[in-house]
Design goal:
The chain is mainly alpha-helical and 69 residues long. The protein has three helices and two strands; from the N terminus they run H-E-H-E-H.
């Protein structure tokens, strides 16, 4: 857990500032409900540690292609 504010709360604050910002949640907490909640709140993806860099690269590539249309 991050000190002072958890990831979901941080995501909500980011959405208040700019709802267009792309967010990929990276966490040590493997929790399916938390992952679904993050996606519902606008996170593009929810990735657990240890980071699978191939998956992260794939997620970033797909998002970039999506943004570029």
């Amino acid at each position: 857990m991050m000190p002072g504010m958890g990831g979901i709360e941080t995501l909500k604050e980011i959405r208040k500032v700019d709802p267009r910002v792309g967010v990929i949640m990276v966490t040590a907490i493997s929790d399916e409900k938390l992952g679904k909640r993050a996606i519902e709140l606008g996170a593009y993806e929810y990735i657990t540690k240890p980071i699978d860099f191939w998956r992260l690269e794939t997620v970033l590539t797909v998002k970039m292609i999506d943004l570029l249309g």
